[in-house]
Amino acid sequence: MSEIKKIAVMTGGGDCPGLNPVIRAVTKTAIMKYRLEVVGIKHGYRGLYLGEEEFINLDIEAVDEIIAKGGTILYSSNKDNLFDYTYEDENGNTCHGDVSHVGVENLEKNGIDALVVIGGDGTLTSGRDFSRKGVKVIGVPKTIDNDLAATDTTFGFDTAVSTAVEAIDRLRTTAESHGRIIVVEAMGRYAGFLALSMGVGGAADAILIPEIEYDIQKVADKLNENFARGKNYAIVVVAEGAKPLGGEHVVDDVREDSPDPIRLGGIAKVVAKQLEALTGHEARATVLGHIQRGGTPTANDRILSTRYGSYAVELLMQGKFGNMVTLDGRNMSYESLENVIGANKAVDPNGELVTIAEATGVSFGR
Ligand code: F6P
Fold it and tell me: What are the pLDDT digits (tens) for 315-354?
């Protein structure tokens, strides 16, 4: 058994529904099962750099009511990498460099024996790097994109899909009233899991995902076939990372201060214009954007997050540092942080859900 008396927990990167249930499960397991002290570090690694002013005591009361709350009570930052950090020195000069030792000192000064980091690739990369420096770290994976190879499902994904399907249900009634094509843009970065699931769950006529480059004419042909059958509207789901055959991603913005500067976005408008021209049906684009990341987590995400958070503490108590909690089939498991970074997964273009979608008449533009 490891000598752990006090742990800290933090959230980094983009938020997603389920972060609070993880914080709750970490805190409750640590206190109720192992009688540990728990510190919450606000604003991710920036808080670790700033130290005490960003550290809050997490007791049972602090986390008792947060299972249904979206976002993160600890706030988040997706810019602050302490191994490559921009900061002001005591003379007010802007400096740049590795300040990770400050983070380590702040943990030591506050008697913190181990750290649970909840985040995506960037946050977990720093978690791995702190682990290499000797900090006792356990990672917990989050993303609505569900694109981490090491785990079967990330929490937040189920909520994002449910929210998006509800949005499609609303778009369907207005699409039908006007006999329009509505093109719905999904998040998901370079993976199509979110678009695929919301497209199937929302009964889309076409689903365009990054893993299958689409031919817009084939999408239009499918919609025209449906129109000829008497259907007067269409729902097309397009992943923000989808590309036409031989084409490029549509980039909305470049955020130089972010570890992953490219922000995809805008493809729904392009696809809507093309489909309008090719079908003669009026088309509109709707970008769901951060609506997919907000709001109360679904029951499935609350359960998954609780399992992830509680298991993270079990791993710490078993001395299994430097690992990330994973879901392997139906069971909780773990994988070294050394192996999980940058290992993304993609939708199998000939996998079960794509095949079933095609069998039920969905076009992927191929
Ligand atoms: O990775 C989660 C995600 O929501 C992506 O689906 C999306 O492309 C990106 O983050 C948006 O990032 P930001 O919140 O920085 O705009």
Answer: 999 999 999 999 999 999 999 999 999 999 999 999 999 9
pLDDT confidence of residue 38: 98
Is the separation of the CB atoms in 330 and 152 below 8 Å? no
Separation of 204 CA from ligand 1 center, angstroms?
Answer: 23
Residue 272 vs residue 258, higher pLDDT: 272
Measured from the CB, is residue 144 less than 6 Å from ligand 1?
Answer: yes
Ligand 1 contacts CB of residue 204 (under 6 A): no
Task: Kindly state if the Cβ of 143 falls inside 6 Å of ligand 1.
Answer: yes
Within 10 Å of residue 278's Cβ, how many Cβ atoms? Answer: 16
- Residue 2's pLDDT is what? 56
Q: How far apart are CA 22 and CA 138, in angstroms?
A: 13
Known active-site residue 80? no
Euclidean distance between CA atoms 23 and 21, whole angstroms: 5
Which atom of ligand 1 is found nearest the CA of 120?
A: 1
Binding site membership of 208 for ligand 1 (Cβ less than 6 Å): no
Give tens-digit pLDDT for 146-171. 999 999 999 999 999 999 999 999 99
- How far is Cα 14 from Cα 238, in angstroms, rounded to an integer? 21
The amino acid occupying position 276 is E
Token duo for residue 2: 């490891």
Q: Residue 292 CA: which ligand 1 atom is closest?
A: 4
